[in-house]
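anyone seen this seq b4? input:
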Amino acid sequence: MPATRFHAGASGWNNTAFGKKFFGGWEFSGVGIVQSGTPFSITDRSGAAFYGVTGSTASFAPGATLETAELSGSVERRLNQYFNPAAFVKAGNLFGNAGPVRGSETWTWR
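predicted toks r here
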């Protein structure tokens, strides 16, 4: 994307002495990445059997947290795997303790 010159229209700041002095010659350009996503839960279909239900959220593996479950790094690294599956284990007979994981949606512009 080429740089964009500051311009506020034919009757805008560029046609005044103030505008020419303070805004003339400015250019804007950049690269950006916006990442977002809908939270979702990792589930265990056999979890919470003690309570007579047919599923639960999974549990975090020993030592794992939400911060270690969500991967970081370059966008390319996270396109095919945006959470660490080793951070989760089956909930067993009780309800799991894993919270929602943020999904991955990425927009890049240049």
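The mean pLDDT is 76. The first strand starts at residue 4 and ends at 5. kinda curious what u guys think
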